[in-house]
Amino acid sequence: MTESLTEWAYLFDRGEDFQSYRRFGAHEEGPGRWRFLVWAPNAAGVAIVGDFSAWQPQPLAPLGATGCWQGVLNAAAGQLYKVQVTAADGSVATKIDPFGFAFEKKPGTAAKLSGPPQHDWQDAAWQAQARRRMGQPQPQNIYELHLGSFKRHADGGYLTYREAIRAVIPYVRKMGYTHIELMPLMEHPLDASWGYQLMGYFAPTSRFGSPADFLAFVDAAHQAGLGVIMDWVPGHFIRNADALATFDGTATFEYQDPHRADNVRWGTWNFDLGKTQVQSFLISSAIFWLVHCHLDGLRVDAVSNMLYMDYDAGKEQDRNRDGGRENLEGRAFLERLNGVVQATKPEAQMIAEESSAYPQVTAPLQDGGLGFSAKWNMGWMNDTLRYFAMDPYARRDHIDLLTFSFVYMHDERFILPFSHDEVVHGKKSLMHKMPGDRYNQFANLRVMFVWLMTHPGKKLLFMGGEWGQFLEWRDWSALEWVDLNDPLNAAMQVFTRTLNKLYVKTPSLWIDDQTPAGITVTIGSENDVLSFIRHGLSPEDDLVVVMNLLPEERQHFAVPVPQAGTYTVLLNTESQHFGGTWVRLQRTLHSRDKPAYGQPATVDVVLPAMGALLIAPKP
User: Fold this and answer.
1) C-alpha to C-alpha distances, 31 to 73, 77, 99, 619, nearest whole angstrom
2) Are 169 and 185 in contact (CB under 8 A)?
3) Helices (H), 359-510
4) Would you call 381 helix, strand, or coil by DSSP?
5) Distant-in-sequence, close-in-space partners of 486: CB < 8 Å, separation ≥ 6
6) What distances in angstroms separate CA 320 from CA 126, 520, 596, one per listed residue?
7) Contact by Cβ (8 Å): 463, 475
8) pTM (2 decimals)?
């Protein structure tokens, strides 16, 4: 065993052990016998303390010249432990196990003796389907969720992972979403960090139950036909003295240069992404969640912070060895991360939360790209929210906030996000951003959601937006489900569900998000109307989108259509069913041989005030 551990430790040291969680940390060797393996290359000594030893140190031995320490101790599953590190200067610190699979509930930070969580998986059909669909166009409409505030018990207590199986999964499926994206569920000490300041890179948080309970949630989602994505944070970690910071008494996981290590903006430490052992550690974390926990993808947080030397406050003048802004180690790490994931689980999604115009984020590695599967389109999101927050009569000189996206919409494989970051910290909820009285706010929100669902790119909406919750998100309490007693909120929820389901069953909205052949913009900057055509595999699949961005009804409005024939109005945002005022709807439209905006024909419609129509050829 010691010889094989030495071999694996050398691979870890070279940055080539991408399943290091199978060997590092604590693993049961037999009844009451646990083997520990800890990386602490500059420590003078390492011991394990736990309730199995009355918290008295049990020394580990150096594992040759690997920088690792190992030993076998008598203990029982579920007992608590930490790592005691004696630094070269003789100082002693008690640390968490970086490879711990389970931790005690906050405020404690001790790990529990627990091997990798086990589960009797029943999602073989889902996994096989994911492999078959790999590389094929698919609809993707993601429901972003913070588990701690989706719902809570009457006493304010959290839902457990098991309770979320019953409370979250049926709701998300009923609403017509294809995926759940969970904000980070890796172990973290502070609720207010929303999980983005981590300590446990291999442990689902104990707030909501056991690691096995988390696996049960993922399995249940798959059996319900829902993919599961989780936010993952490889760029930085918490400063807490008992976590990864100066783990062996020196800069172990973080940069040795304090200036580079210090993440001023978030009050954390930056991982040294150029260190081979850190690469083994972080890539192993990604593989753990994707392979062992069966996640369908990781949304990689704060990619810009890993790509730029000058991204953080106070580092505006920082440059790399070539004089450029790019963090060369960060880019190399991301390339390697995506390469390993593609080789290990090629059907998994790696999604970049990247807020700059960094080129080729989703281009293949062999073409000089970073190799991500998709990128959040932050520019589209910011421009869209800025436009729709304006008074409608002030918008007419700013339609470029919407149409500019047509210039770059195929530059990357984009996800269009209305995320949690846009509905918190005084930014107001999506509903509250909308101008006008309550009725007009809902009308604007419905049109904005049509823009989201018909624009090229995959979709993401943060919880509560689907029914127009007015209060901005609060992580310390549940969503305002009482809103649904209001007829306008209830109708908004019906609208979102209808639009979601229409998106999934309309291939023209997702089969070609990546090329100019998938969209023709017809009316782009006139009369406060925006109209375009989404194309499918055949002319019969075309979908015509027309949005009236003023609160004025347009009689006999000529909408350009791609061929002569009979058309059907699939959706009218001003239907009374959705909270609008229209009781009688236009259903069937007959084209006129009147060319307009490069199209051979038009259909005559009554364009609803602050409304949108989706029009399709009649079979």
Assistant:
1) 11, 9, 21, 68
2) no
3) 378-389, 400-403, 405-408, 430-433, 438-454, 487-505
4) helix
5) none
6) 44, 43, 53
7) no
8) 0.97
Nearest CA to 388 out of 336, 341, 432 is that of: 432
- Nearest Cα to Cα of residue 403 among 544, 502, 528: 528
Q: Which residues pair with 534 in a beta bridge?
A: 519, 543
Six token digits for residue 320: 């790399």
The domains located in the chain, with CATH, are 1-118+141-376 (3.20.20.80), 516-617 (2.60.40.1180)
What's the DSSP call for residue 146?
-
Say if residues 27 and 40 touch (Cβ distance below 8 Å): no
Rounded CA Rg of the chain:
27
Percentage of the residues of the chain whose pLDDT score is greater than 90: 97
DSSP 292: I
Q: How far apart are CA 112 and CA 95, in angstroms?
A: 13
**CA distances, 566 to each of 289, 410, 439, 453, 554 (Å):** 50, 31, 33, 24, 21
Q: Cα–Cα distance between 89 and 619 in angstroms, integer?
A: 79
Residues comprising the chain, all counted: 619
* Local structure of 64: helix, strand or coil: coil
Q: What is the pLDDT of residues 558-614, one digit of tens each?
A: 999 999 999 999 999 999 999 999 988 888 999 999 999 999 999 999 999 999 999
pLDDT at 42 over 60: yes
Question: Which residues are catalytically annotated?
Answer: 301, 353
At residue 237, what is the residue type?
A: F
CB count within 10 Å of CB 211 equals: 26
Q: Is the dihedral of CA 302, 216, 17, 257 positive or negative?
A: positive
* Token code pair at residue 255: 């940069």
Tens digit of each residue's pLDDT (9 = 90 or more) over 236-277: 999 999 999 999 999 999 999 999 999 999 999 999 999 999
